[in-house]
Amino acid sequence: PPVPQERLADWYRAADVLVVPSRSESFGLVALEAQACGTPVLAAAVGGLPTAVWDGVTGLLVRGHDPVEYARRLRRLAAHPEAVETMGAAAVHHARGMSWRASAGRTIEVYRGALERGVGQGRRHAPAPAAPLSWRNEKAVAQV
């Protein structure tokens, strides 16, 4: 049955891995909620899930919808609990980078950089963003 919002984190933390075998997914909020609780995600590589799940770092992505492939990946994770633990720690860091506050901060950096370079003053196209658009970097993962 549906779980009250205030109990979701308990469910996510109780799981070793969250499986999201969606055929269509606009953003991947459930995957991000689980990762924020330290639970790695095994998900279909559809819609927003490849952004929500950092393949090989915070979980695993499956191309296609073959149940055998999901079972193979789950067996691999079960055989390597240390990898699940490492992914769980990276997942928390990754989810923080997807927060509203972090996203707003990156957006502000891009606008500031654009203003500093004079975007909108006779240019037809904006230059490259001032801030990196990805919070995914090896240095950040190494800190986890």
Q: Would you write up a description of this structure?
A:
The chain contains seven helices and three strands; from the N terminus they run H-E-H-E-H-E-H-H-H-H. The chain has 144 residues and is mainly alpha-helical.
Q: Which descriptors would you attach to this protein?
A:
144 residues; mainly alpha; Rossmann fold; 2 domains; 7 helices; 3 strands
Q: Identify low-pLDDT runs.
A: none
Strand percentage = 5-15%
Question: Care to count the β-strands?
Answer: 3
Largest sheet features = 3 strands, parallel
Order of helices and strands: HEHEHEHHHH
CATH topology of the largest domain: Rossmann fold
What is the CATH first-level class name of the largest domain?
A: Alpha Beta
Oligomer: single chain
Whole-number radius of gyration?
Answer: 18 Å
Average pLDDT: 86
Distance between the termini: 35 Å
CATH superfamily of the largest domain: Glycogen Phosphorylase B
What strand order characterises the main sheet? 1-2-3
Number of helices: 7
Report the helical percentage.
Answer: 40-55%
Any idea what the CATH architecture of the largest domain is?
3-Layer(aba) Sandwich
Alpha-beta classification:
mainly alpha
Global shape:
globular
Integer count of domains:
2
